[in-house]
């Protein structure tokens, strides 16, 4: 392993190029699984720096072999969100209704920056570096698509996988942790059935609106009464759709439910409880047919490896200073990153947070139309973090 305290990243030489790249990516956001322009940008850059480039499942992997040593994979996601931008930036999105509101443009720019620096400084390390750029994180499709398309056979098995996410913390800082850092996420589309009737004659039908309302109230007891106080769980009903007129009782109602958990056993208990409650309420109401439950946007749990957390945190503290490295508290948002190392079965991984806002500035949350990370030192810190984390594993050349 290299001594990160003595590593000179050479970032100044790429800063102007990277800032222009970042602004271009921000101006040209693309929705999940539609990242064709971004893919072409990534492919062109990686090929220019001598990477062996492959397109896999809508994403890109670039492999740079540099002698004997470990294999390190760094992943960046590429997709934007269906959000109308309200940042007022002079490089704001030029795509109507589409915006990099989650900072994946930062991730791509930092991923390419690290890939360039490692390619230009091969004398500092020995081993294999894999730069992976993933589509469709926001819809939980992208990692699975790459795995299903043969990712594990296309690149060497990594000894460790790395990833980061820009968050509303202080720019110039990073935060790490071992154990659960992002929750598992499940969305459920629930359709319940009644018998439609005139609003003045509810006794002649089965009211799907009342049935759906009863389910909403009962779901509030899942976490409060079925999950141990020390465990984490969130059950949210984000939408209810039923009917179109005040005097017509509709024959069906739809609920959109979202679940977040930090433990697979808790996740299983919560999902089983939801199904039990839905089916029980339908039976109690005299529903004429069983409910329909469709699961979608399912994200795995993200659990950082303790050994990787120790290795990388030590390297970060040596490079950035201990005052710039914080503890990443578990975030109830979800990610599909862990499916990438999961392609090889049991590859350890680390996922850390990257601060993106000036100290004292009002930092809005990811997915907000005004989400606008401070360009610097965010880009530099994210690029150097990816590079330093990789160099913590790649052996120095002899």
Automatic annotation (TrEMBL):
Keyword Manganese included in the entry's annotation: yes
Cofactor binding: number and manner: The Mn(2+) ion enhances activity.
Stored Pfam families: M20_dimer, Peptidase_M20
Hydrolase among keywords: yes
InterPro entries: Amidohydrolase, Bact_exopeptidase_dim_dom, Peptidase_M20, Peptidase_M20_dimer
Binding site for Mn(2+): 102, 104, 138, 165, 367
Molecular functions (GO terms): hydrolase activity; metal ion binding
SUPFAM superfamilies associated with the record: Bacterial exopeptidase dimerisation domain, Zn-dependent exopeptidases
Essential cofactor(s): Mn(2+)
NCBIfam families for this protein: amidohydrolases
Protein name (database record): Hippurate hydrolase
Species, as recorded: Tessaracoccus oleiagri
């Amino acid at each position: 392993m290299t001594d990160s305290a003595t590593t000179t990243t050479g970032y100044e030489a790429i800063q102007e190029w990277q800032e222009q790249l970042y602004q271009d990516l921000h101006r040209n956001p693309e929705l999940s699984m539609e990242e064709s322009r971004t893919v072409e940008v990534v492919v062109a850059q990686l090929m220019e720096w001598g990477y062996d480039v492959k397109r896999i499942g809508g994403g890109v992997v670039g492999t740079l072999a540099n002698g004997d040593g470990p294999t390190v994979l760094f992943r960046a996601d590429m997709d934007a969100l269906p959000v109308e931008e309200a940042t007022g930036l002079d490089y704001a999105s030029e795509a109507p209704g589409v915006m990099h509101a989650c900072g994946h443009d930062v991730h791509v720019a930092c991923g390419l920056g690290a890939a360039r620096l490692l390619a230009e400084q091969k004398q500092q390390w020995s081993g294999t570096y894999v730069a992976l750029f993933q589509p469709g994180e926001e819809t939980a499709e992208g990692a699975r698509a790459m795995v299903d398309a043969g990712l594990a056979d296309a690149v060497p098995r990594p000894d460790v996988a790395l990833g980061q996410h820009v968050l509303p913390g202080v720019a110039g800082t990073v935060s790490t942790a071992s154990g659960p850092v992002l929750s598992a996420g499940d969305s459920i589309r629930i359709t319940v059935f009644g018998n439609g009737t005139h609003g003045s004659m509810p006794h002649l039908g089965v009211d799907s609106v009342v049935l759906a309302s009863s389910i909403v109230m009962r779901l509030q007891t899942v976490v409060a009464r079925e999950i141990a106080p020390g465990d984490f769980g969130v059950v949210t009903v984000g939408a209810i759709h039923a009917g179109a007129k005040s005097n017509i009782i509709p024959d069906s109602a739809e609920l959109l439910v979202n679940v977040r958990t930090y433990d697979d056993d808790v996740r299983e208990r919560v999902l089983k409880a939801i199904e039990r409650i839905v089916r029980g309420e339908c039976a109690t109401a005299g529903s004429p047919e069983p409910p329909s439950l469709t699961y979608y946007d399912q994200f795995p749990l993200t659990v950082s490896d303790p050994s990787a957390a120790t290795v990388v945190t030590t390297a970060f503290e040596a490079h950035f200073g201990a005052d710039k490295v914080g503890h990443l508290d578990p975030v109830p948002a979800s990610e599909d990153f862990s499916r990438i190392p999961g392609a090889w079965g049991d590859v350890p991984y680390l996922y850390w947070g990257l601060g993106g806002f000036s100290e004292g500035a009002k930092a809005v949350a990811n997915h907000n139309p005004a989400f606008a990370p401070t360009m610097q030192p965010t880009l530099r810190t994210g690029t150097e973090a990816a590079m330093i984390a990789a160099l913590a594993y790649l052996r120095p050349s002899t």
